[in-house]
Amino acid sequence: MINILHSKRYRTSSWLLFLFLLTLVFAASIGHMFQAPTSNEKLLERKSLLLADTNFEKVKKIDLKNRLGNFTFRYNDLNRNWEMSRPRELLIREDIIRKLLHEISMIKVKKVLKKDQINISNYSLDSPLFEISFSLDDSNDPIQLKFGLIDSIGNSTYVLVSKKNVIYQVDQIDNLFLKLDLPDFIETRVFVADRHEISSMMILSGDDLKKVGLQLSEIDGQWVGRVKKDLGQEKVIEFLDNFINIRSSMILDKLDKESEEDINKNFVHPLYRVSILKKDETEIVYDISSTFKKIGNLKIEKRQHFLVRSNLSPIIYVVPRKYLKVFAITEKNISSIPVKKLFY
Fold first, then answer.
1. CB 276 within 8 A of CB 191
2. Which is deepest, 27, 99, 100, 245, by most CB within 10 Å?
3. Are the C-beta atoms of residues 302 and 341 closer than 8 Å to each other?
4. CA neighbor of 80 nearest in space, from 171, 192, 186, 244
5. Using an 8 Å Cβ cutoff, are 180 and 132 in contact?
6. CA distances (Å), 53 to each of 41, 46, 48, 172, 335, in order?
7. 152 alpha-carbon distance from chain centroid
8. CB under 8 Å to 81, separation ≥6 — which residues?
9. pTM of the predicted protein model
10. By CB neighbour count within 10 A (0-12 exposed, 13-18 middle, 19+ buried), where does 306 fall?
11. Quick check: 100 and 175 in contact, CB under 8 A?
C-alpha cells in the first residue's frame, strides 16, 4: 500500500515538473515574439528593399518618363543644385527630386515572379506607366526601373529592374509620380537658398551699385550687421524668411529678339544687386530691375512687375511690384523698430 502511494506521488510530481517546464518554454516563446527588433530582423528588412545596395546620395542624373512627358535632371556640382536639362533648361524644385529618390529607395519587395513574355504582358511591363533611370557619380551604367500594372486591391505594382532576370511585385509608389508634369518641377521661388544655408548677404543700390543698403553675416549662430552688431535675431529671421519666399508670377527662358532687347535694357542700370554667400561657399548674385513698361509682345501689365536674373541660370523671373519694398530694408529696420509686414 505504501509503495502504491509512493508511486502515485512520484507520477504526480513528474507531471507537475513537466507542466512547469512547458509553461517556461511557452512564456519564453511569447517574450521572443514581442521583443524589440533584433539586428537580424533589421537586416532582413533591409534585404526586402528593392534597391538596398544603391547609394542614392551619389545619384547625379535622373531620367523620368510618364504619360505626360520625358524629363532629365542633372546635379550641378559647381552650383550644388539640381537642374532640368530636358525638355527645358530650368532650375527646379529640389524637394520634388528628394522625395522622388526617397520613395524609390524605400520600395519594398512583396514577391518575386518569373520574367517571361506572358508575365511581362499580363503586368503591363511592355507598356509601363512610369519609367525612371538614374546614374551614380562613379558609373556610366544607369539603373533603370519600369513600373507596370497597379494592383489597387493589393496596394502593389510590378517592376522590372535593369540586369535583373525577374519581375518584382512591390509596394505601390506614390501616384504623384505618375502625374508629374513640367509645371510641377518649376521653382517659382526667386531666391533658391534656404535660410539655414546662408552665411552672409548684401543688398547694393545706387547708380553704380556701390551703396550698401543691408549687410548681414552669421557669426557663431548670431546675425550681425555691417554697422550695428545688436540686430534683433527674430527680426532678421523674419526678414530672411520673407525674402526667400518671394515668388515669380512668370518665368522667361525662351525669348525672341525683341523681348531679349527689352530685358537687356532693363538691366543696364539695375535697381538693386543682391549677393548671397552660402555656407558651402557658393556665391549667388541677383540683379533686380526697376518696374518695366513692356517685354516684347508679352501680355504683362505696365509698370506692375520687375525682373530678376542670377549668375546661376539664364532664366529671367517676372516678379510682382509689391515685392520691391523688401529690397529697401536697412539695418535700422531690423535693429531698433519692428519689421513691418512686408506683403499684403
1. yes
2. 100
3. no
4. 192
5. no
6. 17, 9, 11, 20, 51
7. 27
8. 75, 91, 94, 192, 312
9. 0.64
10. buried
11. no
Cell of 166: 525577374
279: CB partners within 8 A, 6+ apart = 197, 198, 199
Coil, helix or strand at residue 117: helix
Question: What string of DSSP letters covers 241-298?
Answer: HHHHT-B-SEEE-S--HHHHHHHHHHTSS-SEEEEEEETTS-EEEEEEPPP-S--TT-
Residue type at 112 in one-letter notation = V
* Owner of C-alpha cell 501689365: 301
In angstroms, the Cα distances linking 145 to 57, 58, 88, 108, 151 are 18, 17, 23, 14, 18
The answer to whether residues 327 and 272 touch, using CB atoms and an 8 Å cutoff, is yes
Distance between CA atoms of residues 258 and 252, nearest Å? 13
CA nearest to 332, candidates 224, 257, 231: 231
User: pLDDT tens, position by position, for the chain (344 residues)?
Assistant: 444 444 444 455 555 555 555 565 555 454 444 444 433 444 444 458 888 888 888 899 999 998 888 999 998 887 778 888 888 887 788 888 888 899 899 999 999 999 999 999 999 999 998 999 988 875 678 899 999 988 888 888 999 999 899 999 998 887 777 788 877 887 788 887 788 889 999 999 988 888 988 999 998 888 988 876 778 888 999 999 989 989 898 888 778 899 999 999 999 999 999 999 998 888 999 999 999 999 988 888 889 999 999 988 888 999 999 999 999 888 888 875 554 544 44
* Cβ within 8 Å of residue 19, ≥6 positions away: none
Burial bucket for residue 228 (CB in 10 Å: 0-12, 13-18, 19+): middle
Amino acid at 18: F
Cell representation of residue 155: 496596394
